[in-house]
Amino acid sequence: MKTELKAKFLQHLVGKKKDDQGFTLIELL
């Protein structure tokens, strides 16, 4: 998977989960 596409995909998931779990993928990386 291309890095840019993966980044956008992860950002999309983070945007959905952010409200429920209260964290961002950046904090996990």
Automatic annotation (TrEMBL):
Domain of life the protein comes from: Bacteria
Protein name: Pili assembly chaperone
Native species: Aphanizomenon flos-aquae LD13
